[in-house]
Amino acid sequence: MTWQTSRFQIDLSMPKVMGIVNTTPDSFSDGGQHRTVAAAIRHCEQLILDGADILDIGGESSRPGALPLSQEDELARIVPVVRAAVGLGVPVSVDTYKPQVMQVVLDLGADIVNDIWALRWQGPAQGMSAPRVIAAHPRCGVCLMHMHQAPLTMQVQPMEGDVVPQVLLFLQHVAHDLEGVGVEKARIVLDPGIGFGKTVAQNFSLLARQTELLTAGYPLMAGWSRKSSLAGMGVVVGKAAALPVGERLAPSLAAALLAAERGASVLRVHDVKETVQALRVLAAVR
């Protein structure tokens, strides 16, 4: 199985590691660490040295409660970084939901659009739509994620009931719709959206039953890195208090390996070096 992107056909026979590059001042995990262009580019270079197969550059936080960012501010944050990153020799993904931003970064040579809204965002798009932008491009890859409601409200009223069939049905629907406007199946990867409008129990249900999501027929991306569901609160890591973000490496690695073992093709992570090392153990076992 391969993932067709703008410049690369990514071999997914073994899980690939996507390194997160946040240019935001307010990301839940590393906000502000890479907000300058120089710092973000250095981080891109370091992630590649650490073994990242793909870079994922984002300029707008999608943490629970996050406020929307203007198109102008998002472009100001990411354009210089994307322009530099496309020269580093690995596929470049951009985490955005705005059609105008998608068009700009694809014109710069970005390979993948990673959209938390699964191309459904309705806003001041100036006559553009996200599906049209993707369909008009001859080769770019796209990742479609499931999100319940929006970042500002998604954890106020999370989903109800058994989320696995709900997420599966949604992902099948948006992927088939995209194929319907001319996007080849080989360009599409799906993401169940861990933490995006789900309870802790629902997130772990998606991991435990992840193979059910594979029945959609598309590769899966798993984004467990440093998520609050791994923080514990006495349930996951045996502490009475929630585990701080900086202390979530071990549960992040455990979740990443479980996701890979259950068929995830791409792991979106902050801690690239450690994830790569963990995947080597899994590869040796296999």
What does this structure look like?
The chain has one domain (2-285): TIM Barrel. 36% of the residues lie in helices and 14% in strands. It has helices at 37-50, 71-85, 99-107, 130-136, 163-180, 200-208, 210-213, 249-261, 272-285; strands at 2-4, 9-11, 16-22, 54-58, 92-95, 112-115, 141-145, 188-191, 221-222, 266-269. The strands form two sheets. The chain has an eight-stranded parallel sheet with strand order 8-7-6-5-4-3-10-9. Helix 1 (37-50) crosses helix 2 (71-85) and helix 2 (71-85) packs parallel to helix 3. The radius of gyration is 17 Å and the shape is globular. The mean pLDDT is 92.
Secondary structure: elements and pairs:
Blueprint: E1 2-4, E2 9-11, E3 16-22, H1 37-50, E4 54-58, H2 71-85, E5 92-95, H3 99-107, E6 112-115, H4 130-136, E7 141-145, H5 163-180, E8 188-191, H6 200-208, H7 210-213, E9 221-222, H8 249-261, E10 266-269, H9 272-285
Parallel strand pairs: 3-4, 3-10, 4-5, 5-6, 6-7, 7-8, 9-10
Antiparallel strand pairs: 1-2
Helix pairs in contact: 1-2, 2-3, 3-4, 8-9
Give Rg in angstroms: 17 Å
The major sheet is characterized as:
8 strands, parallel
Mind telling me the CATH superfamily name?
Dihydropteroate synthase-like
**Strand arrangement, major sheet:** 8-7-6-5-4-3-10-9
Helix count equals: 9
Q: Tell me which CATH architecture applies here.
A: Alpha-Beta Barrel
Question: Which features does this protein show?
Answer:
TIM Barrel, alpha/beta, 286 residues, eight-stranded parallel beta sheet, single chain
Short description:
The chain has 286 residues and is an alpha/beta fold.
